[in-house]
Each structure stands twice: as C-alpha cells, then as structure tokens.
Write a structure and sequence with these properties.
By secondary structure, this protein is an alpha/beta fold. It has 16 helices and twelve strands. The protein has three domains: 219 residues, Leucine Dehydrogenase, chain A, domain 1 (Rossmann fold, 3-Layer(aba) Sandwich), CATH 3.40.50; 131 residues, Rossmann fold (3-Layer(aba) Sandwich), CATH 3.40.50.720; 42 residues. The structure holds glutamic acid.
Length: 477
C-alpha cells in the first residue's frame, strides 16, 4: 500500500525506514528518539586563496550517534552536499557499523565542491584547510572521529588529511589512525580501495548460497550467467561489476553513467569500459554494445540484478513501478527512496539494503584503523611460521607419495597453493567475506523468523537498532 503522497527527501526516507522498523520493536519511546536523532552537525565556511582570489567553501561533519567511539564515516565532495544529506548519511553509518559489528558510531562529512573544477594542488589546499577546521574541533581524531573516502574523494585526499592531522598533532603516535582509506605508503591497508565493491560481491555470493532467499526473487541457481545492470562505474560500481563478471561468471548487460548507458545482452567488458571512460570522460562512443542517451531509462530494463552504485534517490516514486529487476542490491547509500521502497516491496522485488550491501568499505576501514593502532601489518608475525608448518605436512605427504604400495600422488599445484601463508590482502578479504556472511545471516534470520518483517531492509534495521539500543542501555541510558 502506498503510504506517501509526495517523494520523501533522503533524510525523511531514512527516518521513515527507521520508524517502520522501530514500530516492530519494544524500545522505550525516549530511547527510540535518542537513537533516531542526529547528535550534532558542524557547519564550516572557510576561505582559500586560489587563482588570485579568495573562494569560500561550505563543509559539514555530522555525528549521528556516539554510542561507540570513535564515530566513523566518509567525507564526500559534491555540489549536491547539504546538511540533510550529510545527516542522513551519518545515520546510515550508525546502522551500517552496528550491523557488521564495526565498533564505531556513525558520522559523515561533506564539502560542497565539484572536484573536477580544480587542479590537484588547489584540491590539496582546500582539503588541508577543511581538515584543519575539523581537526581543531576533534572532528578528525583517532579516538573520536575517523573519516574515510566517499563520493568524490579517495586515497589522495585521505593522505592529505592524515598528513594535516599529523602536522597539528606532532607527538600523537596514533596519528595515522585519524583517517582510513589512505594509500599503502601512508598507513593504508591492502584491499581498501576494492573493499566496497568486493563487499557487494560477497553479499551476492552469500545471498545465492540460500536457495530459499533466491526463490523469493523468482530466480534460481547461482550468479553464473545472471544479467546485471550497474549504475555508476565509479570505485564501488567498477569493482563490483569487475569481480562479479570476472570471478562469478555474471554478465554485465548494462552500465549506466553520467552521459548515457551501454547495453549488451552478451555482457560488457568492465575493464574496457572503465578505461574508455577514463580517456573519453563518458561511455559515449564506446565500440561494443548499444549506446542509450537517456541512461536512467536503462534502470528500467529487464535484468536479473540491478546494482545502483551512484547517487541516492535514483529509484523513486517516479520510476519504481517500471523497474523490472527482481533483485536490487544497493551499492550506493540511499539509492531507493522510502516511496520507491514501498512500491518495490508491494511488487515483491527483493532489495539487499545499503546499510548491509555497501558495508565492505567501513569493514576494511576498521581493519585499517586496527592496523594503524597496532603499528604492524596483518600477517607479518605469522605468515612464515604458517608456511613452515605447511612445509612439514607437504614433506610428509611427498614422502608417502613415493611409497609405490600406497599408489597415490600429489596434485601438481597442491604444493605451491598449500605452502603459501596468507598475506595482508588475503587476510583482509577473508575478514571481509566472514563479515558479509555473518551479517547476512543475522538479517535473514529475522526476515524468515518474523511474519511482520517482509523485507531485508526492515530486518537489517531491527538487527542494528537492537545492537545500538543495547550499547546505550549498557552505558546507563
Ligand atoms: N564512505 C563509506 C561508506 O559510506 C566508507 C566509510 C568508512 O570507511 O568509514 O560506508
């Protein structure tokens, strides 16, 4: 049943979805309100002298919930940034971290800027100044507030932020833990860049491990051969599409970008499209597939899985009834409005919600933060010891395989595969895979166990709000 007469904003959408979930819980009314509201939002306007003139920029850092500290969440650079958006995103961070057991409260930052309009050295000046404004108020701090990349920012910006913080806190031995998503040479971790897209892949793999859940979409079998449309070939969409096509045998039948879309039922080559975009600034003119000028229409094309990996609100009351995908996985934050969500739920579309689907980023950020605080790379102590123990077994097996009477041999690549101890990247992927599996299982348990829970989003909210409420209670609130 349609509950909205007009399209709710992003922030209203998050609140509406939260309200729908808490209505099914027995929380004291005061606590419910305490969890829902955003604790604080700091707005800063600062000037930077560029091209012989002073430019004023507006930025935000919003702290949604401090039931655990530090609070965590990315910094976005986009002209669309505003207080409401940052607060909605900060709230999602609270629920996301709780759902995947990353021990953080939720926060988010944003700067109203189109980064493509500035030279690298100008962006550095702007970023350092923004970081200075936030750090001097402890809104960047290893134990209080730890930003990360989001839309329009990446490793480069995180390295500037980390360096700015270190300059302001010269004796803080944990300075590097003030921000995550840094390059490796500035205290980053292997696998952080791919993490959100990798998490989307692991989430889908886990979904397809449960035939009962797959049946709800009307699909069957595994990921092989499934037709996927992805919106946005940025960091998240690119990695998700790449891994799903190259490793799981799915077909990327549509890629939607700013300037239009590409469609090809035989499957597009993600790597080739990505490098075309890098050199030509868009998908237009790409050799394979068909170019569709009205890109967003492709959201409505027939496919098995739709991956919105760009902006919020792209599936809404205006197009939800025309969406044909039976399964949507929200790689972006808030791509489906509350109004769109109602329509899709009524149609029986299964949505794997953002707070779970894109939690791979913050999960690996958590690993990076722990690495920075422990001042040692994962795997450094144990790897060779693990290899030495494996060597013992391999030698023993080799000795036995020489025994003609036993009559068995080792498979050709067993030795090399088995001998190698896990490096940091493998450990990160293993930790991420485990996180995505466990969190999915927690959601699906609620989804299947309760008659009043129709969808995975409500289930996700129930699990995470339950955890946040437990933290508040433990604190005596
Ligand atoms: N910006 C990302 C998100 O929305 C990552 C946050 C983080 O790593 O702290 O989840």
């Amino acid at each position: 049943m349609l509950q909205h007469s007009k399209e709710p904003s992003f922030r209203e959408s998050v609140d509406l979805m939260f309200n729908r979930a808490v209505a099914l819980m027995k929380l004291p009314a005061g606590l419910e309100e305490k969890i829902r509201v955003c604790n604080a939002t700091y707005t800063v306007r600062f000037g930077v002298r560029l091209r012989g003139q002073i430019h004023t920029f507006t930025g935000y850092r919003s702290v949604h919930s401090e039931h655990m500290e530090p609070v965590k969440g990315g910094i976005r650079y986009s002209l669309g940034v505003n207080q409401d958006e940052v607060e909605a995103l900060a709230a999602l961070m609270t629920y996301k971290c709780a759902l995947v057991d990353a021990p953080f409260g939720g926060s988010k930052g944003g700067l109203c800027i189109d980064p493509r309009e500035y030279e690298e050295h100008e962006l550095e000046l702007i970023t350092r100044r923004f970081a200075y404004e936030l750090a001097k108020r402890d809104l960047i701090h290893p134990s209080q507030n730890v930003p990360a990349p989001d839309m329009g920012t990446g490793e480069r910006e995180m390295a500037w932020i980390a360096d700015q913080y270190a300059r302001m806190n010269t004796t803080d031995i944990n300075a590097r833990a003030c921000v995550t998503g840094k390059p490796i040479n500035a205290g980053g971790i292997q696998g952080r860049v791919e993490a959100t897209g990798r998490g989307v892949q692991y989430a889908l793999q886990e979904f397809f491990r449960h035939p009962e859940d797959v049946a709800k979409t009307g699909l069957s079998g595994g990921l092989r051969g499934k037709r996927i449309i992805v919106q946005g070939l940025g960091n998240v969409g690119y990695h998700a599409a790449k891994f799903l096509s190259e490793e799981d045998g799915a077909l990327i039948t549509g890629i939607i970008e700013r300037d239009g879309a590409l469609v090809d039922e035989k499957g597009l080559n993600v790597e080739a499209v990505r490098s075309w975009i890098a050199t030509h600034g868009g998908v237009k003119g790409y050799g394979d597939g068909t170019y569709v000028e009205q890109g967003n229409k492709v959201l409505e094309s027939a496919c098995d899985i739709l991956i919105p990996a760009a902006l919020e609100g792209v599936i809404n009351m205006g197009n939800a009834d025309r969406i044909k995908a039976p399964l949507i996985i929200e790689a972006a934050n808030g791509p489906v409005t509350a109004g769109g969500d109602d329509i899709l739920r009524d149609k029986g579309v299964v949505i794997i919600p953002d707070m779970y689907a894109n939690a791979g980023g913050v999960t690996v950020s958590y690993f990076e933060w722990v690495k920075n605080l422990s001042h040692i790379r994962f795997g450094r102590m144990g790897r060779r010891q693990e290899e030495a123990r494996h060597q013992l077994i391999v030698e023993e097996l080799e000795r036995l395989s020489k025994d003609k009477e036993l009559g068995w041999t080792l498979s050709p690549d067993f030795k090399t595969k088995y001998l190698r101890g896990a490096d940091e990247l493998e450990l990160v992927r293993s930790g991420l895979d485990d996180t995505m599996r466990v969190a999915y299982q927690a959601m699906r348990e609620v989804w299947h166990a309760r008659d009043d829970v129709q969808d995975l989003r409500t289930a996700a909210y129930l699990v995470s709000i339950g955890k946040v409420a437990a933290s508040y209670r433990a604190k005596g609130l």
